[in-house]
Amino acid sequence: MKTLQNPGVANLTLDDIAKLAGVSRSTVSRVVNEHISVKKEVRQRVLDIIEEHHFHPNAAARTLAMQRSWTIGLIIPHSVSTFFTDPYYPNLLMGIAKACNLYGYTLALFLVSTKEEEENVFPRVGRKGFLDGVIVQSGHHGDQSAIGRMVDNKIPLVVVGRPFRSDNVTYIDIDNVSASKSAVNYLFQSGCRRVATITGPADSTVGIDRLEGYRQAYMEQNTPLDESLIIEGTFTETGGFLAMQQLLHQHPDAVFAASDMIAAGAMKAIEEANLRIPEDISIIGFDDLPSASYGNNQLSTIRQNVPELGLRSVESLIEQIDDNSIAPRRVILNTELVIRNSSLRLKEALSSNPI
């Protein structure tokens, strides 16, 4: 469509057109650049706004924007075995891959488990013309150097999970503190008094934030915290099993596990000790993986939409690719406390006193 420049009309920007059309800036950019990954009705709405307001895109900026590989890199700092055994990562990849298909991008996956592998990957990631931008699944202290290098090299970047330093990078996450606090408060309000927790690794922001939510719940309940009820774990079933074996000596009546994988291991340890779930020990996990709703002891948990994290990370990255002047920001997605059999008595206790 031919566009006209009207000197009597203020020069609009892509952001202005996006607001008028009720779409994202990246969608307007794809329409202007005649990319195929826009629904017909959305494309027409944007074109109508462009024509109505005589929008004239900057020719130089448009030429620059089209110098792309249409490829996005995904860096996951874990081994191949971890990637395929922890259900979180396939769910994240599913969301990212679907978004890439929707917006016409190819996805390049990099699994990095050692410093040597990171050093080998970075020259490829930073090579001009190879990738348009990068998504990093992060949250561990050791990932900060790689993130810093990409920021310094002005590579469009989105981090999934709160990085240790977040002032200069866009990241997508959930409110782990509030979500964890809600789970622990729920256990207290059900009548539990010795609520324990199995945390994630202490060098991860996820582990730190979920432990902080646990501590805040104790403060809100004005209940003294017995530090022996806190056991650091790993986000694995084995880690949950071993940590729960230690906790059993402290006689908890409830456990908040920092992940569903941890909770699964903890439940096995509880059952091996001939204790009942939830009659003797209630348990709440985190993630709402598909396995949480299977079996006799279906797991109460915090539901987070992991594929949505992937989708939003791609959309935020494309916005940066379209406009490198966008300031770093954080996107926080909602969570939901889901109650199942592993805390069935909570339903009964709260039926007359809902939260």
Provide an overview of this structure.
This protein is of the alpha/beta class and 355 residues long. 44% of the residues lie in helices and 16% in strands. The strands form two sheets. Strands 2-1-3-4-5-11 form a six-stranded parallel sheet, with helices on both faces. Helix 1 crosses helix 3 and helix 6 crosses helix 13. The radius of gyration is 24 Å and the shape is elongated.
Mean pLDDT: 84
Oligomeric state of the chains? single chain
Report the order of strands and helices.
HHHHEHHEHEHEEHEHEHEHEEHEEH
Strand content is 15-25%
* Largest sheet strand order: 2-1-3-4-5-11
Which parts are unreliable, with pLDDT below 50 for 5 consecutive residues or more? 1-10, 346-355
CATH topology of the largest domain: Rossmann fold
Q: Helical element count?
A: 14
Number of strands: 12
Distance between the termini: 56 Å
Cα Rg: 24 Å
CATH architecture of the largest domain: 3-Layer(aba) Sandwich
Q: CATH superfamily of the largest domain, please?
A: Response regulator
Largest sheet: 6 strands, parallel
**Broad structural category:** alpha/beta
- Helical fraction equals 40-55%
Features:
Rossmann fold; single chain; 355 residues; disordered N terminus; disordered C terminus; 434 Repressor (Amino-terminal Domain); 3 domains; alpha/beta; 44% helix; elongated
In terms of topology, how is this protein built?
Layout: H1 14-21, H2 25-32, H3 40-52, H4 59-65, E1 71-76, H5 80-85, H6 88-103, E2 106-111, H7 115-125, E3 133-137, H8 144-152, E4 157-160, E5 170-174, H9 176-189, E6 195-199, H10 205-220, E7 230-232, H11 237-247, E8 254-257, H12 260-272, E9 282-287, E10 300-304, H13 306-322, E11 330-333, E12 335-338, H14 344-350
Parallel strand pairs: 1-2, 1-3, 3-4, 4-5, 5-11, 6-7, 6-8, 8-9, 9-10
Antiparallel strand pairs: 10-12
